[in-house]
Every structure is written in structure tokens, then in C-alpha cells.
Amino acid sequence: MTTAAAAAAAAVTTTAAAAAASGPCAHSWPAASLEAGRATISLLPEDFLDMKTRVEVVVVVVVVALATLVMLLGHVRGLDGDLKLVNNGYEGVVVSISDHIQQEHCSHVIHGLKAVLRELSSQLWSATDGRASLREVTVTLPRAWRTSPSLTCSLFSPLMYSSWPTEGHIRVTAPHPGFGSRPWTQQSQGCGRQGDFIQVGGDFLRAAGNGSHAHAARLLLAEWAKFRWGVFDERGHAHDPLYPPTFRDPNTHQWAATGCADGAVRGRICDPSQPGCSFTPDLYTNNHLSASLLAFPHLPTVRLFCTDNTHTHVAPTKHNSLCGGRSAWQIIRQTQDFVGGRNAASSSNRNLEPVLMFVQQANPRYVFVIENTATMNLQRRWEYLRKAMRRVVVYDVPAGAQVGVVTFSSVALTVAPLTVVESQESDMRQRVGSSLPRNTSPNPETQKCILCGLQEALRLLNAKGRRGADGGTVIFITTGSGPTTHLDVDRMHHLVNQYHLRMNVVLYPLTERRGAAAAASHALHTLVEATGGSIFTVMDEGVGNDSKVKMMVALMDALLALVQQNAPASAPGAPVLVHNTAYPGGIASMSAGTFALDDSLGPDARFSIYYYDLNHVGNSIQLTAPSGHKIASVNIQEEDGDVNMIFINLEKAERGLWTYSVENCADSHQGLYVQVTAKQNSSAGLQARLWTSAGAQLINSSDPSTPVVVYAEVKAGVAPIINARVVAKIHRLGTNVTGSDYQPIFLHLWDNGVGDPDITQGDGVYSRYLPQLPGSPGRYLLSADVDYNNGLAVVAQGPPTRRRYKKPSLHLPFYHHHYHDTWNSEETCCGHSLPHVHTRRTPPFLRHLTSGVLEVMSPAPYRDLIPPSRVLDLRVEVNDTVHEISLRWTAPGDDWDTDRAHHYEAVVAPSWKKARAFQGDRLTGLPHPLPAGTIHTTSLHFTRYEE
């Protein structure tokens, strides 16, 4: 009996079946329709090819749901943001140097960066046939670096400053536990979509000469292609069941290196099912190759990407799997940089050296622009707004930040000039936080001038020092109605672009009829989307002439989230929301919960209770430390009636899991809100963030061709945290027709690397498709809780131990001198997952994240139009003795990765071409689909493969 692992060339298809009038009905799709909806992965049972007849057999699995549409996959979307390709030159490129890089190393880092970027621009021009180069690059330096000439590296003076968070497109930081100092790209989205960032270790820029700069630039160019254009690796990896180092070519029936090249790749070929199999291209006999950079960037002659003529679409590569077998150059040409003939090929001898501008991270600057009209005087709206402003300025804004406050009605006024706020006890915090007038303006909402508010904010920013308004953060708090002309919106677009502002909006309060569909988007929405800001909505929650305290807490949460999003998240002193829970009144006399404090937080934390009326908080408030010590808080409670808060400062708080109980005396239409906040301790500590693929765009639920994916990133410094529990909460704002709150939807995010939607397992990025949102269009608050998963979460440690080579002879090519980035599989990483050899268990931790409000502008389709997610991790093993095929895959859902599919179909075909057309013998005995995300394993008997 022999058992062979799958190596190459099977099509895995995800499609949807028609729903007949009499009920669900599955049938064969026409080849063209099936092809449009197919996602392909290369897997071929190798023992089939060992038969004397050499018949090629391909397994095809079709996942069928109750639907009436086959989705077109691999749609290439535009790339947004300040990074743009203008007249064949990239502008807006940002390289950030993190606090992990000490200033004593700044000389070699900056020198190496200049040389590598210069070489990268030249190689980019060559690889794209004169279509692209680097023109303008901004390099952000750590705040800790000083400009004194007496230091190791004297920086340029005068040095410009940036208030925006400095997370660059290319990040120079500490070594990664999986990649070391080699460049790598975090890609959370799919084919043709821009990646998250490129990361390199500081040592990567340490080079001895021009040859090493060219080598480094070639590696960086491959990562730039992944980051900017959404292409993927075209090489295999040792021990990877999905992307093996070699595969059986279905055309020649010979073992070949997994990759893409414009010629034969020479090197040691092996059977990937054998222990220790890896592919190493020969160092001396591959000088005839010029492609592909995504497969062999280490070879000095390789400088191009594979085109349709040179692409190996049957190779089991990550690129083929995620991009449906299309060539890298085809994907690149369809991105916004080049689609429709943009940035056409050029042969001009232009200057390709990029202009570098060095800036230094400065403390953030916030200007709150607040509507002050008569509509704010209804119920307790203005009172709650004043309390929320005091809370965010006094307690949340990080020390050293600058804060200004502007109000506007028919005109705009500065009520607090841009002021530096230091420690929490600073008088300046109290003054700025209490700067709003006690009474509102009598001017009606119809006379408000939003443009005036923005102009006054710019005047405020420009009046403070030589930095001007560039990089400032503007936070508008305004109602969701009132006049805003197209001319005013155009002027605001011009101003935010001119001064590089980030616009954020809180719609407060937004009044809508119970159960009604969401109103048209506010005019400021386009400004938010264009500047990479966020938009929050606080619904009007009135009770007669009164207001629910829920409105105040929601406004506080929105302002805290905006402060967090517009400050360096990893900087010491950045605000962190650890725990956030609402306890309705009139249900239980005691409200209890847990929270965790970890070493990445500062020594102190604040346990806070927000209330409508002070009498709603009973006398009993008890905290239990991780050691079991019970804290009777009677003598340590503090009150701040200006923000409706009772709080306990936990100084030098124990690390670990805390419990608490609070006596809840709130009325049935009010409640208590418990929050635990702390400060970030160091940039190497735990960091978490939450976002979606839609950004600030409006969501069209009726269009299955534009699905939305929810992402969360959980890391300790640069190291991914694996097996964390990440639960997203999607909660529709407002009330239903009965006056009750809508029920939230909870979504567990996965880091499973199945490819759709999660790209790579173990990278610390967790993802799921946004499920169908029932009911009418509306606004949904997206938040998430992240924790240590009852002790299962671990953090990757490294960098990995690498085999050291003996010092090579001087005649060897330069790339062989770099032991840390040679081709050998022990030194390269990674395929469908990041193999972390060394991990440690994380201590208990907890984070509450808020992304913003998802604005859904169309209803969900009445028919089932949403297809299942693609199956990209099918594995096949063959036992030719008993004629048995063993299959293993991750179950898709009915709608993307939610629920379960209707049934599976599979065929075995004699050729790759027929398999892709779903022509072959159908396999019977496939299991009933399991819930999405579950691992399927099954064995099938097949008797015709020897014919």
C-alpha cells in the first residue's frame, strides 16, 4: 500500500446553484458560467501519474448553495489614498522608521535606505517597461531621535514634522519572528487589492556596496509588487501542503520546481512527499532567467514578472490559487495604476532617483469643530456633548497632544485655542475640556455653516508655530441634517487636500423614525472617505423631554475611538480601552464582569462607571484582584459629576484577571456603563486594531460582487499573536418599530489561512466576511473584543534560528553571501501559514476595539444571491492499492463563510482542461456540508483511474 500527498493541478470550484420554483435544485453549470465563478487551486494525486498509462486525473469539487448567481471572482479594485502613480512616478510613498531602531544605527539605516530606494526606483522602471518609478518619498523618523550634531547621526535641520500616525507603506522596524530582517508584505486582502504594508528589519539596510544594494532592492521590488498590486508569491515552500516546493507538471509528467520562469529552472528536484524535500535553484546555471521576481528574486539576472506567455498557470503557487491562474503581469496591468492605458510605457532617459523628504513624528493635534445651533438645545443633547468633551480632553487625549475647540452656527468661533495638554492633573486639560459655552446658540440649524467651521479650524492650526495646518486632525460633531451646498463641499475638499488634513465626523444626534431606513449619507461622508478618516453616528435616544445616558456614553466612545485612531497606537501613553460593557437597568440588582490587565499596559488603570443619575449607582462596588485580594472601594472611589462618572484609580494594578460587581439601581429605560481604560506602556506591547475592506465607503448589501470583509490585527510589537479569540459585534443603531434596541450580530474572526478571506494563517490578522445584515438599510456600529482565549493564545518568538554558512569565496555572487535570505527553504517563509517554531503563552489580556459605523445604503437581496466562499485548501491523498482517494478541506458557508453550503459535487477528469470545464466522472459519497470553518475529511473509492 502506498499513500502519496497531493502535489499539483486540481481545480476546486465554488459556485451557486439555481433555486427552482418548486424548491432547491442543483445542476451542472455551463462551462462559461462555471468558469466565471471558479476559484482554482493546483492539486494532483501524483500516484495517478505513476500508472503505466500516464492518465492525468484531476479532482474537481463544486460547493453548491441555494443561490441564483455565479459571482465573478478576482475583481480588481482601485487603490485609494495619498499614494498615487502620476506620470509614471509614485508620489506619496511613506517610509517609517520605528522606535525599535536606536539612533546609534541611524547612519547606516538612512544611508542604506537612500541607496536601496534609488536602486528600487531604477529596477521598478525596468520591470514595468518604463511605466513606474519612485518620485517622492517621505521618511518619518522616530520621535526619540534627536537632531543634535553631536549625536551619531546628525539629522537635517530644519526638520519638518508630521502629526499623523507614522505607519508607513514601508516600515523599518525590529526583526519579525518568521521573516527575520528580510522584507515581507502583510496582505490581508485578495488578488488585485493593495496590501497593508511592507516591513523590513533595520539590518536589511546594512550593506557593503552597490551590489548588495541592488540585491536588497530586488527583494524589495518583489514585495512592492505584492503590496501595491495585490499579486502573491510564485514559489513553493518546504513542508507546505498547499504550495509544495515541487510539483508534477501535468503536461510533461515530470517533477518541476514550483514557480514561474521564462525558461527552465535548474536545481535539485525532489518528491515533495519525501521528508526534507526542498528546491534550491542552482547558483551558477540560471543566468538565462529574467523572470519571475515573485519566484526567484534572489537570482541576479531576474528582473521581470511573468506574462501570459511565460506564466505557469498549473503550478501550485499562492498566486495561482488566489488569482485564478492569471499571470502576475495581467493582474498588474488591471490595477488602477495602469488600467485603460494609464502611465503608458516610456523609454525616456528620465532621472529615476527619488526625492526624499525627512519628517519627524510630532505629538498629535486635534481640533474639535462642534455645531452650536438651537437643535442642540433639545432634551439633554448639549449637556451630554459638554460632558463628552470634558471626558475626552481631561482623561483620554495623550499627554503632549495639542487640542483646540471651535464652535459654529452661522459663523465659527474659537472657544479654546490650540493648547498643549500635559499630565492628567494639568489645569490646561480642565480649561480646554470645559471651554464649551453652557448655553447653546439660538441660531436655527438651517443657518449653520460647516465650511466656516473648517476654515476656523485651519486658522487655529496655522496660528500655532511653524508647522502650519499640515497633518492636523479635525473632528466634526454635527447633526445629520441641515444645509450643505455642493459648492461648500467642493471648497472643503480643496482645503483638506491642500493642508493634508484628516477629517473625522461624529453625527450627533441623528434623528430617525423608529424602524425606518437610513437617511441619505451626510455631505461630509465624502470628505471622510477621501482623507482616510472615520465616521461615527450617535442616534437620538430621547425619553419624552429627557435623553438616555446611552447617548452620552456613545458620544464618549466615538470621541475616544477617534483619539485612538489619530494617535500612534504603539506610542507609550496612548489611550487603551480594555473593557466596555453596558448593564441595563431594572433587570438585576448586581452587575458583575471581568477584565484583564497585562504588561503592555502602564502601571495604572481606571475603573469607571457612567450613570444617568448618581443614585443609580448603589453603595456596593467591589473589585477582586488576580491574587484574590478583595478591594472594598468605599474609601477609594472618586466622583466627577461633570462627566457623570464614578471611578477608581488602580495604581500599580496587579497583572492578570480581575472581577468586579456593581450594585445597579438604574431605571429600566436607563442603565450603567462600566469601562476600564489604561495607557500603552511600550511600542513592543500588545496592539490590536479593527477595520473593514470597505473603509469609509457606503455598503451596498444588494450587490454580491462587492463583499465586505472584517479584519482585526492582534500583535505584540511586530510578533503575531496566534489563537486569540476575536469576536466582532455588528450592532444596528437606533430602535425598531416597537422601540426596542436591535439585536447585535456576533462574528468570530478566524486566522486560519484558508485563502478566502483569510490569506495567511498565523500572521496575526483575523478575518471573516461581513454577514448579511437583516432588515432595512441602516447604520451599524462595528466593535470587537479581543482576549487570550482562556490561555490558548500564544505569541510568536524569534527571529527564527537560522543555519549559518561558512564564509563564501569572494568570486561567488553577492546573494550567496547573505545567509539570512538565500533561497534554501530553511531561510524563506512562508506559504499558506507562518510556521512559528518558538512561541510562548500570553498572559491574560483583553481589548475592546471600535472601528466606526458601517453605513448600509441598500437592503439585502430578497433572493439568495450570495455564493459560498471559495475552497482553496483542498488536499488529496491517493491509495492505489485499494483505489481510494482521501480528501481534506475547510468547509465554506452558504453565504460566503456563514452557515453551511447546500451540498458538494466532485468530478474526476482525465485532463486539466476538462477538469476546469467540470467535465468528467462524478464522485459519489461526498459528505453533507459542515458549518463554515470546519475541517472536512472523507475517503472515496474510485475504480476507473487505471483505464
UniProtKB/TrEMBL annotation:
Pfam families with a match to the protein in the record: CLCA
The entry's keywords: Membrane, Transmembrane, Transmembrane helix
InterPro entries, A to Z: CLCA_N (IPR013642), CLCR (IPR051266), vWFA_dom_sf (IPR036465)
Membrane recorded as keyword: yes
Domain Calcium-activated chloride channel N-terminal: 84-339
Signal peptide: none
Coiled-coil regions, chain positions: none
Gene Ontology cellular component terms for the protein in this record: protein-containing complex
Transmembrane regions listed in the UniProt entry: 57-76
CDD domains in the cross-refs: vWFA
Domain of life: Eukaryota
Name used for this protein in its record: Calcium-activated chloride channel regulator 1-like 10
Organism of origin: Homarus americanus (American lobster)
Gene expressing this chain: Clca1-L10
